């Protein structure tokens, strides 16, 4: 499904593209890559983002516009110093609710104010240029735009915004008759009985559990001057469905086959992995680190590359050496305690001469001792503070991680089967889909034992069906030109000028 968007004549002024995004690294990274691609294609991009990520945003060629006050979230600091002392002791489902309040709803009025300031900054820059809004789904600060909040008198909506495009960087949190609410521990079941179960969970359980978040959203919307509020229960899709189009990052084979996808919904492929062979022209000239070809600066990197080259030698060839299995393990950027997943993986394969373990800590300049880990590093382990997942997964046999949506897609893009052990945010949902789609093993917890990790990795190594299936999904990703789809959708909005979808009072 390759797109073939037509280049726009240079003499035609393209609109500005204003990007807004939730401040977690896992949400920002895909949008920054998209910004880099759009910049390479000649779009003038502006990114309203947190100051902690300013450097990465500007490296992508976007003009950085700062969030401020409570909207200026530093996610690394947030998880190192949680909102209250007993945060870590909460069940993961309760932590998610706390995070949604602190990260999405409480700062909504400030996000809205920053968004209005961003519109004014672009208007001042060139009063004749229109704007297309490219919004990641969990930046709630733009919802007032669709629910009747007034802009200042110098910003006339119909004169500024041509339309809006939603990019979803998590599993789609849009209500379906075929699915229970996000996070509920039930298997996919779209049968008549399953749909009855799903409806009961939505109406009798989630509506009650999320009632205070639904009410808080209404309160925050009123603070922005919205003339009406979202009349749906929280996390049922209002933050997606208000846009002209929903582009879901990912491939169809990883997602449950719903019968009621919104008509404006389409899969947009992956930003992870090597750039696709695109028909739309230029590739990003200054991509983010995960997209470039620079050799990682680790003393053990040549050892990894040499091991990969052994696959081309036959046992009878001179100098033949048995190829080691490469296990890559990462803790992610939210649940960052190495004792959860990295340390069990190191112990599971310690001193195995046929295995090389690459452990990625996830933050620049991090080391195990900075997390309070005091263990003897096995001789077959190599540690990286921060490294391109794509670079290292090109050499991997198994990808062990805690179920982040981006991490899953890195595995798919590189055709590497995985073992996942994650809870919190959307990690539980992602992990279940890993098992359902056949691309790996879900350990069903965030803190597996050494035996659980060893058994799951060996199962993936021994059963070729996991590799076969993940490569089928990899092929799907290679057939969808993500950057081309985003480009084409921007061109469509530029030409058709659909405007902002004002939600009705009955919505």
How would you characterize the overall build of this protein?
Helix 12 links the parallel strand 8 and strand 9 (355-360). The longest helix is centred in the N-terminal third of the chain and has 18 residues, at 108-125. The chain has helices at residues 25-40, 54-59, 75-80, 92-105, 108-125, 143-146, 157-160, 192-209, 211-223, 238-241, 301-309, 342-348, 389-393, 405-414, 427-437, 450-462, 464-478, 482-496, and strands at residues 16-20, 45-49, 63-66, 131-136, 161-168, 245-248, 265-267, 325-330, 355-360, 381-384, 398-401, 418-420, 440-442. 48% of the residues are buried. The protein starts with 15 loop residues before the first strand and ends in an 11-residue tail after the last helix. The strands form 2 sheets. It has a 7-stranded parallel beta sheet, sandwiched between helices. A 6-stranded parallel beta sheet has the order 10-9-8-11-12-13, sandwiched between helices. It has 507 residues and is an alpha/beta fold. It contains 18 helices and 13 strands.
């Amino acid at each position: 499904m390759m797109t073939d968007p037509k280049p726009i004549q240079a003499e035609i002024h393209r609109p500005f593209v204003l990007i807004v995004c939730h401040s977690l690294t896992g949400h920002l990274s895909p949008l920054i890559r998209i910004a880099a691609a759009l910049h390479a294609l000649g779009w003038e991009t502006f990114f309203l983002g947190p100051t902690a990520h300013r450097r990465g945003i500007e490296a992508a060629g976007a003009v950085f516009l700062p969030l401020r006050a409570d909207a200026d979230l530093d996610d690394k600091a947030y998880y190192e110093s949680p909102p209250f002392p007993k945060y870590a002791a909460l069940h993961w489902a309760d932590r998610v609710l706390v995070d949604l309040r602190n990260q999405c709803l409480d700062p909504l009025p400030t996000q809205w104010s920053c968004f209005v300031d961003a519109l004014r900054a672009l208007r001042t820059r060139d009063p004749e240029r229109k704007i297309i809004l490219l919004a990641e789904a969990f930046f709630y600060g733009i919802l007032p735009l669709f629910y009747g909040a007034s802009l200042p008198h110098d910003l006339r909506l119909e004169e500024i915004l041509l339309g809006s495009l939603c990019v979803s960087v998590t599993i789609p949190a849009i209500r379906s008759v075929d699915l229970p609410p996000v996070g509920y521990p039930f298997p996919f079941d779209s049968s008549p009985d399953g749909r009855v179960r799903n409806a009961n969970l939505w109406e009798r359980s989630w509506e009650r559990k999320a009632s205070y978040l639904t009410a808080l959203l209404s309160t925050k919307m009123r603070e922005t001057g919205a003339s009406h509020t979202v009349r749906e229960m929280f996390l049922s899709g209002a933050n997606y469905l208000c846009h002209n189009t929903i582009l879901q990052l990912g491939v169809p084979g990883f997602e449950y086959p719903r019968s009621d996808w919104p008509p404006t919904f389409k899969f947009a492929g992956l930003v992870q992995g090597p750039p696709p062979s695109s028909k739309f022209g230029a590739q990003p000239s200054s991509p983010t680190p995960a997209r470039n070809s620079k050799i990682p600066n680790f003393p053990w990197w040549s050892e990894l590359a040499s091991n990969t080259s052994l696959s081309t030698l036959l046992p009878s060839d001179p100098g033949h050496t048995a190829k080691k299995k490469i296990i890559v393990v990462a803790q992610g950027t939210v649940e960052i305690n190495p004792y959860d997943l990295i340390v069990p993986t190191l112990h599971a394969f310690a001193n195995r001469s046929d295995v090389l373990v690459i452990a990625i800590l996830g933050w620049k300049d991090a080391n195990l001792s900075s997390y309070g880990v005091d263990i003897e590093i096995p001789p077959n382990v190599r540690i990286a503070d921060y490294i391109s997942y794509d670079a290292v997964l090109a050499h991997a046999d198994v990808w062990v991680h805690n179920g982040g949506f981006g991490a899953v897609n890195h595995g798919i893009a590189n055709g590497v089967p995985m073992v996942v052990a994650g809870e919190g945010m959307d990690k539980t949902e992602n992990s279940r889909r890993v098992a359902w789609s056949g691309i790996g093993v879900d350990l069903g917890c965030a803190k597996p034992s050494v035996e659980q990790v060893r058994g799951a990795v060996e199962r993936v190594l021994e059963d070729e069906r996991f590799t076969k299936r993940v490569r089928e999904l990899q092929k799907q990703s290679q057939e969808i030109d993500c950057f081309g789809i985003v480009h084409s959708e921007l061109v469509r909005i530029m030409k058709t000028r659909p405007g902002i979808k004002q939600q009705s009072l009955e919505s």
